[in-house]
Amino acid sequence: QVQLVESGGGLVQPGGSLRLSCAASGIIFSIYAMAWYRQAPGKQRELVAAITSGAGTTNYADSVKGRFTISRDNAKNTVYLQMNSLKPEDTAVYYCNAYLGSPRRSADYWGQGTQVTVSS
After folding, report:
1. Which long-range contacts (C-beta less than 8 Å, at least 24 apart) are formed by 30-33?
2. Rounded to 5 degrees, what angle do the CA atoms 84, 85, 89 make?
3. pLDDT digits (tens, 9 = 90+) for 50-62
């Protein structure tokens, strides 16, 4: 049974930082690409950041470049999202995603999400 469990969300003031974690089980973590998506109320889910297996190549949404960093620890089966200089528009539910293949995915798993609220 595949499980992706996010943690680290919460309420933070503008300009603050949070680090999200996603612990995976039930998959061979090291061969999966990992990503973080987010969905704000009334908006579509959007890709925030992704990291490949192997070389660990990363890519980011333009809106978070220079502020967010995605990383992975294959020994701990965990992917992280370090979020700095947070803005109110970063408020959303953040979802962890594990997948194989791109653009056509042969496997695709999602976590339940963690709420991030940026507000003074």
Report:
1. 30/74, 31/100, 32/98, 32/99, 32/100, 32/107, 33/98, 33/99, 33/100, 33/102
2. 110
3. 999 988 899 999 9
Report which secondary-structure segment, H or E, holds 116.
strand 114-118
Q: How far apart are alpha carbons 38 and 78 in whole angstroms?
A: 18
Q: Which residue has the tokens 């309420």?
A: 11
Task: Write out pLDDT tens, residues 65-109.
Answer: 999 999 999 999 999 999 999 999 999 999 999 999 888 888 999
User: What gap in Å lies between CA 53 and CA 37, rounded to an integer?
Assistant: 17
| Structural tokens at position 67 | 């502020």
